[in-house]
Sequence to fold (701 residues):
Amino acid sequence: MKFKKMIAMTISMAMCAAVFAGCGSSGSDSSGGSTDGGSAGGDLIKVGIINNDPNESGYRTANDKDLKEAFSKENGYDASFAYSLKNDEQITAAQKFIQDEVDYLLLSAADTAGWDTVLKDAQAAGVKVILFDRTIDADESLYEASIVSDMAKEGQTAVDWLKGQGLSEYKVIHLQGVMGSAAQKGRSQALTDTAAAEGWTIVNEQTAEWNAEKAQQIVQSVIDSGESFNVIYAENDDMAKGAVAALDKANISHGVGKDVIVMGFDCNKWALEELLNKNWNYDGQCNPFQSSYIKDIITKLEAGETISEKTIIMEEKGFDAATITQEDVDKYGI
Amino acid sequence: MAQSKLSPPKTSFFAGLMRNQIFIPIAALLLLTIFNLIADPSFFKITLAQNSNGDPVLNGYLITVIDYGSELAILALGMTLVTAASGGQDISVGAAIAISGSVMLRVLCGSDSRAETLQAPIIVAFLVACAVAMLFGAFNGTLVAFFKIQPMVATLILFTAGRSIAAWINHNELPIVKDVSFSYFGNYFPGVPIPTPFFIALICFAVTWAILKFTTLGLYVQSVGINEKTSRLNGLNPELIKLMTYVFLGVCVAIAGFIKVSRLSTINYSVIAKDIEMDAILAVALGGNALSGGKFNMGSSILGAYVIQYLTTTLYKFKVNADALPAYKAVVVILLVIMSAPVVREKFAQITAKLRAGKSHSTTEAA
Fold:
């Protein structure tokens, strides 16, 4: 009996979840519909933007803000936004945008797989697709351009910097992002390869899933075990922050000229301030400002030009605590 | 419960313990302890060291367990009462922590997310966060008690919407508190070598114990959970009592949220306290409490919460991938569900009875 009840409960829960999910998307439908009405008169360029949840990270917040500012009515665009961290919800949103007959579909995919069908639909409907921030596993002919950060390059820049520090021995704690994400793959690969080539020790390699709390626990666990380490390679700023909290607790000095080198990614403003205060050593940029690149492409396409190079890699920097200035913090902090 | 029906007239101490529900978390604790003793006894080493402010602090895995397990234990208090009264669980506690934590930082930082000084005393911020969390608790409670919605379904609303609300509170910014005194609550007070969250948890346990001991709340909660109609006939107001348990859970959420945001002096509402609702529910289950409501044992839940953190810390120690942790927890859940299934319990009782009978038989034969 109890089992039956439990099964019934689980099913009803799942059904309710589906209902709620349905509500969510229908809600965005209606809002999309209203913007359609408004745009009917003008000759605005209609864009549908599918992005990850802006609350996911500071990066995404900056990214979303940048896009919203760039594709405003004043700039001649009629933009509708859809947010989700789930691939299937994003695909549903894409289908909806295609039905709404947008001119351009801008897409930052949650997952690399599963986009072929919907992109073919887009092509058939004459919707031009531009990928930003994330690549997908689909044929190049299905989209106009892809504006991405080269995560492997970001990682390599960071690891090269680390190599340049000339430590007598390297004992690294490697805090990974959500496994399988492009940022994790690229940034991990660079470290793994170089560590193997240079004979560095990886003391611990763990995913903290971009989460500061988890990073703190993982580093705490290494400290508790008494193993020594001198580098923390965190694949984003939040995890670096969590790691530093654990270091502070155990009185392990970190930063420029101290015992442990702290490395982060994404260039959050607060993280760059930590660099400025010499508490951290390195922060790699992951450029969230794709809108200018996207606009370039749209202008070109509107003028009838073709895009020769489909993959456009954005310029990205790495900051060293020894050389960073307040100007950098203000300009590149997100 | 089944145990009263099954219990034979006279039982040995061990058998009595086995039938007591606190046996489950204790057994789990022992199992983990034995495992750690065999695998690497250094797990139990505790050292006194200094943190970077020069204050003495204790270090070691066990300290980590009581430190990080505290939020979970506090949540388990509220979750136990909610489970007992309404026969269901609140799955929105993680999202509610994001909300109450955001409210707290919003009050502390004011409009500037990088404020140099505190814009309000910490206690004021905490009380505001408490009030907000209680409000959301009351919202859940109302849906469950008055609209008779399944607790998991009712709290699914906040589970879905909570983190967006949290984002909205701080205008999508990630505020940072610069004042050092704020970080004491999630770390250490200067000069005290034991992590503050543990003390906060102890205070919560004491207050809850006092409430259960000196008021009739505990009794009322159980009677509502066992049979709502009978309790109404006996003059109780089941709706009000259910509502109260949800509000109580709201307070627990605010306290746990306070510790969480204090640990790092910031909040990332999309990942803070992620999946903690599942751990809190697991703590209640691990404490041997029936998830369908009724009788409960608070101490057992608290122990359950620390056992979960013990398991997590152990797995971290052995460098099990963090994303594999839920799988291990799932194994625990499966074992628990099977162990607490009436069929298995009866079978188990039969076997032990047979064994005892066989043993006494053989001793009489020998005599």
